[in-house]
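Build the 3D complex.
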Amino acid sequence: MLGELICNISQHSDGKYGYIFSQCLPKKEKSINICIADDGISVFGSYLKAGRYLDIIDSNEMEALRLANEGYSTKDLPESENRGFGISPTKRMLVEGLKGDFFMLSGGAFHRNDVNGSDYVKLPDMMNWMGTIVLMRIPIDVPQNFNYMEYVIR
Amino acid sequence: MKKIIKIAELIGSDIRSRQNADHIRNSMGNFSGVVELDFNGVEFISRSFADEVYTIVKEKEDNVVLRNMEGIVGSMMSVVSDSRTHKRVRKTENANMKEFSDMESLSAYLSTF
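Done.
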């Protein structure tokens, strides 16, 4: 999970800096919380730079976030996919498989996904993060029926 | 002429991230013969790394042979190989789309977390 999300920084963000923070809360929360951030061009900016899916995205950063989280790659491979599987299965593995929480803030929109549901939110115009921040709450106790390979999509 | 690259010795037995594939590329250099990538001793490869290995195979116009990909290593390579030859079927999320134009309404939403 971490490898995929960290690679996104070097491959897509165009940022100068990347950040990783983590904390382990073994008692009450029983989770490992991880924050990965960059000061790049945001998810929306990445699609804009690649010139892909702009007819769907228009100028809506929330829509760009949705596309990224559903696996729409900025790489141009129309007949097969070798990219763009990073965020989507990572998130499914975390939320569906491990019963954790996922949060992504990019530009003027954020996405949160946990066992209660999935929201995409467009922030008021005065709020904007020049880059992308991903937060993950990973439960320490892994469900017995969790199988990593189930989340490696075909 | 054949060159054998022992992946476990070159990178390790638990291999993650795309960048690790650069070690293989560097090791291959400009060698023009058949390259054998020997995965003996490798216990795990991430999907992203497997994807890069697949790219290396294609870059060398199938002049690369993969050996000893057992267990999850072989399964992961098989998954990647399948996905490269089939159009991907994406799952559309059943998600809520919300737009906030002022801090007050956003704060009200955030308070529900």
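The two ends of chain B are 63 Å apart (CA to CA).
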